[in-house]
Amino acid sequence: MAEVEMKVENMVYAKPRLITDTVMHYCPGCSHGTVHKLIAEVIDEMGLEGNTIAVSPVGCSVFAYQYIDVDWIEAAHGRACAVATAAKRLHPENLVFTYQGDGDLAAIGTAETIHAAARGENIVTIFINNAIYGMTGGQMSPTTLLGMKTATTPYGRDAALNGFPYKVSEMLAHLDGATYITRQSVHTPANVRKCKKAIRKAFENSLAGNGYSMVEVVATCNSGWKMSPVEANKWMEENLLPAYPLGDIKCSTLPK
Amino acid sequence: MAEKEIKLMKGNEVIAHAAVRCGCDGYFGYPITPQSEVMETLMELKPWESTGMVVLQAESEISSINMVYGGAATGKMVMTSSSSPGVSLMSEGLSYLAACELPCLVVNCQRGGPGLGTIQPSQGDYFQACKGGGHGDYHLIVLAPASVQEMHDFVELGFELAFRYRIPSMLLADGAIGQMMEKVVLSPQKPRRSDEQIAQQCGSWAACGKGRRAKRNVATSLYLQSDELECLNIRLQEKYREIESREVRYEEFMCDNAEYVLVAFGSSARICSATVEMARAEGIKLGLLRPITLYPFPIKPLQQMVERGVKGFLSVELNAGQMVEDVRLAVEGRALVEHYGRMGGVVFNPESVLEAFKNKLLK
Lengths: 256, 363
Fold this sequence. Notes:
Chain A is α/β, with parallel strands linked by helices. A 7-stranded mixed beta sheet of chain A has the order 2-1-3-4-6-5-7, with helices on both faces. Chain A has 9 helices and 7 strands, in the order αββαβααβααβαβααβ. The N and C termini of chain A lie far apart (62 Å). In chain A, helix 1 packs across helix 7 and helix 3 (102-108) crosses helix 4 (110-119). Chain B is α/β, with parallel strands linked by helices. Chain B is 43% helix and 20% strand. In chain B, helix 13 (323-331) links the parallel strand 14 and strand 15 (336-341). Chain B has a 7-stranded mixed beta sheet, with helices on both faces. Chain B has a 5-stranded mixed beta sheet with strand order 10-12-11-14-15, sandwiched between helices. Chain B has 14 helices and 15 strands. The mean pLDDT of chain B is 97. Chain B folds into 2 domains: 5-195, Rossmann fold (3-Layer(aba) Sandwich); 251-361, 3-Layer(aba) Sandwich (Rossmann fold), CATH 3.40.50. Chain A binds chain B through residues 49-53, 55-56, 62-63, 65, 69-76, 79, 82-87, 89-91, 94, 111-112, 115, and chain B through 25-26, 28, 54, 56, 58-60, 62-64, 66-71, 73-74, 76, 78, 92-93, 96, 207-212, 216-222. Strand 2 (71-74) of chain A pairs parallel with strand 9 of chain B, so a sheet runs across the interface.
């Protein structure tokens, strides 16, 4: 094979400009890094570096603020949408988004999320749904599937014992204030490209003052699921995607 | 000079007027008796049309304090108000605000507790306000208004101190001060700070969008390394010592030749001033020390009273005995310190305070 000279004009890929040099703490195979990269690229492409306020959660992505080079507010567990509500109302020209997992958003932060969406706050939530609490060591989350084994459902999630999982995006789509709700994944190159488009559309929707947007990303947690990255991708396709099907759930405008 | 604007108003209504007039950027609240008039008045005033101030009814006190956290983190002058059970819900957020060193104002119009309690006035949240409330080693600056005028004045003072020290301020009122109507002199309307002024004042820390800053700002209280977290704690403690040395505020009433002194704040102090007059009429040399800042607590003035021969103190509070612990710490056993209080929303009158004083300190 002929050697290709290392030249700028031959470069087909680079670390996004707004991803910092901090070494990421995410496990190899985790989806967070890919989603961070997409967000950093979209912010840069839209020229929003100087007027973005991002809100990080508690959970695996608690350190998101170390990796994307914009202003951040680190919220208490579950409160990101309340924090973002005020930041956006006080800085209406800015892009304000939250980055939250299924424990932070769908359990402890349910009220803040639903009410921010119901009010039609012009914010975006990037919702990473891997159906497990990663940071605390793999416990059941609200989106854990029935039968799924976690640290707190060692015999599998049992509806009688642990209750049923629920679909956050479908639930939010019922709200008048939520106008763009989509579910994406980043487990194949094609899905990565679709997910990036969705993030851009969500950012544009919020900047246009068209209410609340959510990009749910069905994601892997191979460490929490106790699988290799490849197995985790396969397991996600076979189990999570049927329960949380991909695609746009709602694209609308605010009611008059 | 323009004529003074003097109105007859409720304490809670005045909070709203004072907030708009001092240039507050945002109010986030949740209804709870006996302070709901604060948000009701703001919604009537529609400051978003005059000064551009944001007013938002949140879905809970948890959400309101986290909105305050979000707004404060961007350098804006933001506030909330609530009453005791609601402030309990805010305690987590207050710990985060204190840890991130974010300025804001929280009004607690106290009601009787514990639990759901009653809507009648109480001072049962002294410990919560002055000793933390939330987790970790932190303090709020706590101001205790004793009149509708002070409800007005302490809004601006609370913000001023909050920004000077990057610390949350609490205005610890009670249902009586919130609901009573009195004459109040309103301050003239101040403009809200411009973006440039905010950048000048808060540019080194406010996460409001990088703009042309080279370095991004992050509001966080996460320090996984113990030595780094201890550094934050040391810095906070140094700040608290500075506040303790500079910001103590109090008022003395007939203390010059007093042999005994009542210590009382807020509505209790109003009642106690009548007790002092009744005692003086009987020839008892009684005075009143009214802490205006509950944190920082007026330790030195109490110690000076001991040094000049005051024989005993009665801490008069609408609770089971909370501030009395700080009085005892200040007096260090060098004079008698007793407590008199009523609980659960029951309010004492000047006569019962005098009787308690005689029973506890003169016998």
